[in-house]
Amino acid sequence: MGIKIIKEKCTGCGLCVRVCPYSAIELIDRLPVIKENCTYCGECVRACKFGAILLQGPERPKTKVEGYSGVWVFCEQKGGVLQSIAYELLGEGKKLADKLNTGLSGVLLGDNLQDKANELIWRGADKVYLVSSPRLKEYRPDPYTEVLTDLIRKYKPAIMLAGATSIGRSLIPRVAVKLQTGLTADCTGLDVDKEKELLLQTRPAFGGNIMAVIITPHNRPQMATVRHKVMKEAVVNKGLSGEIIEVNPGESFLKSKTELLGQIKEVEKTVNLTEADIIVSGGRGLRGPENFCLLEELALNLGGAVGASRAAVDSGWINYSHQVGQTGKTVCPKIYIACGISGAIQHLIGMQSSDIIIAVNKDPHAPIFKVATYGIVGDLFEVVPLLIKRFKEVFN
Ligand code: FAD
What we know:
This protein is an alpha/beta fold. The protein is built from 11 helices and 21 strands. The strands form 6 sheets. It has a 7-stranded parallel beta sheet, with helices on both faces. A 5-stranded parallel beta sheet has the order 18-17-19-20-21.
């Protein structure tokens, strides 16, 4: 990559210096001089009214979009159990496929998973690519990458979705690099531009201050990992039928540099927030760690779990495993009760798809009320004890 100044065309107006977001241009003797910190973003090229700046470098590779069609979902399994993220992606994938008037396929890698392939069809997959081998029983990056890359090269899906889980985050970037295509990680929303047949991939950017919509216009497949619990699961319909395509992986694809010696399951000491139906969350409004017992009592009465904002976690009032939001967990309970939480975008990202949101906040203008199904304007230290009292009367 390089940048060239055409001296004959340059008038020394200095516009390029002003528009450069990286302060990487200096005017010396009325001629722009490019500094080392230039990122070749092209802002100066676009701004120059005299065509005096040229970006030089390897040409953009020719677009590779022809011949690709269909929406694929990488259906994650652990220990032979399909993970709920697979159902969430099939639900979302179906919507995208319908909009594009194309098919939805699941990709399942593992060992002896024929019955699971049927489950994917009942959740809306028109086709399931099933790759079975004892060496695919547990996730290992190298054989999974080789097998999935080979499948994509052979069948050419236009869109490939996977969970932003530890497996998805390990596997999908490797596949994207092999295929030389774009990947948007950690999406919280997906849609399509029907006319241009583009996947619109939404994810938080710049510390969650904006939601960026990212596209992959020049390459296929368009690959995205999607956060757990953001999309709704596809419902089971045993009347649905589809095709199971059993793919025999070549020996060379199954090689691995690693050997799995054993697995040690983490003992869950803390609440499993992501699976809870009811979550009572507390923020800075709680004023101190001692007041979380109020929320624990409410959660206990409702059979729920306790969540927290980052402000509460950063203050050391509660453990990080309880944090909800962009840098914490994404949750989607039936009821989310936010107490003393303002509703910053980074918090909302992690809970706004809850079925019912109840907000307790003494500030009537708190942003949390914009997403709340029910809002209680009041002091949580008065409201929460009243709620506990009432629930005790109802449930006991
Ligand atoms: P505040 O914003 O201080 O709000 C406290 C609220 O309590 C106020 O609305 C106030 O009116 C109310 N209140 C006070 N006293 C009472 C009372 N007695 N009764 C009722 N209401 C009362 N935040 C997250 O939560 N999760 C994340 O994952 C996360 N990730 C982040 C990532 C990045 C990169 C950045 C930059 C920020 C992130 N944040 C995250 C922080 C986020 O921006 C907010 O700062 C944070 O969510 C604020 O927490 P809060 O609502 O508890 O506190």
